[in-house]
Amino acid sequence: MAEATANGLGQHALDSAHTHDATTTGVTTAEVHQEHPIKLYLVVWAWLFILSTCSYLVDYFGLHGYLRWSLILIFMILKAGLIVAIFMHMAWERLALTYAIILPPVLVLVFVTMMVFEADYTLLTRMAFFGAGP
Amino acid sequence: MAETTLTHIGRTEPRPAGWQGIAADWSSDQRAFKNVSWGKAMMWIFLLSDTFIFGCFLLSYMTARISTRVPWPNPSEVFALRIGGSDIPLILIAIMTFVLISSSGTMAMAVNFGYRRDRRKTAVLMLLTAALGATFVGMQAFEWTKLITEGVRPWGNPWGAAQFGASFFMITGFHGTHVTIGVIFLIIVARKVWRGDYDVGRPGFFTSRRGRYENVEIMGLYWHFVDLVWVFIFAFFYLW
Fold it and tell me: Are the Cβ atoms of A30 and B21 closer than 8 angstroms?
């Protein structure tokens, strides 16, 4: 009941409740607002440009094999990390939220492993029945 | 009873650090995301589900590409453009990448100015983001047109494995749809910022809840996610 009332209040009422709460009980109120200097975003922006250029150059210079794949993955992970951590403010969120959002996608890697085996098996079966290729 | 009420409006108890803190947050009789508003938590959970959707698309593309006996078309050549008499590999995709990254940059700045309650700059930066997003969709439409005229279909193409077309149209099409929806919502939120809806707490059109500048950040989360997905598509589909 009380919960419903609290949710129904306007933002101003909530804000005043926050400050009142914090001053009377001394419990820390964590601020939800994400304010960071503009310079931080510009630096990240520049890095994203640099990393994108690097991954494009991998293709432009026609690198091959494990060097190509590892470079692509490294640049991809760095870019994704910068976007999630800085632009999406994940670096400053509460750990409970961060882990709830970041951990589940990691499990996709299990799915990837399963499908690699499955696809290899499909390929072997196709080669066994239809020959090595057209 | 009063205690329960207070925890529900965002008071944060002192917590141990690290994993113990996470376990404490998730324990019974708790609101797991203490200082995170429902709007933001729900957007994150939506993005998590969207991650699985795009993850499955990329997975099925991987499976198709590994399991085919026919060579995969070389994306470097397929997406090359002839500029000034020579073929430049992947140039259009590279430009699209830079456009989308720039839109992410302007969006991050819009969020920042939103919290500083600078209505004009926030709205202008959001509209700039929307314009860059629309440019991206336009370039994608050009790319689709080029490939379709060259004979790429979901069931076949002139260069190799038949699954190439299906993977390409499905993945980039779904991503393009996300960008388009993002552009529409950017314009809606920019209009609200411009009008000062978040200063006076005017009720929204859909849920009739009072908006605040955090809505700009939530919009930004979605937009950065669209950019994030493109990072993975660029790496796995275009560069691999």
Answer: no
Measured between CA atoms, how close is A90 to chain B, in angstroms? 10
Give the residue among B90, B24, B63, B54 at the shortest CA–CA distance from B230.
B54
Per-residue model confidence (pLDDT) at position A29: 41
Nearest by CB to residue A96, choosing from B25, B68, B224, is B25
Question: CB B69 to CB A130 under 8 A?
Answer: yes
| Coil vs helix vs strand at B184 | helix
AA identity, residue A104: P
CA distance A107 to A120: 21
Helix B214-233, helix B91-115: angle, nearest 10 = 160
Give this prediction's pTM: 0.83
Sequence spans of domains, chain A = 1-30, 33-93, 94-134
The CATH number fitting domain B38-239, selected from 3.40.50.2000, 3.30.1360.70, 1.20.120.80, 3.40.50.720: 1.20.120.80
Question: Mind telling me how many Å the CA of A14 is from chain B's nearest CA?
Answer: 7
A75 and B25: CB-CB below 8 Å? no
Mean pLDDT per 10-residue segment, chain A (134 residues): 36 41 39 74 93 91 90 94 93 88 92 95 92 65
Quick check: B174 and B54 in contact, CB under 8 A?
yes
Q: Provide the sign of the torsion angle of the four alpha carbons A83, B192, A19, A6, taken in this order.
A: negative
Strand B86-88 to B81-83 pairing = antiparallel
Which token pair is B186?
A: 């950017």
| Rounded Cα gap, residues B104 and B211, in angstroms | 22
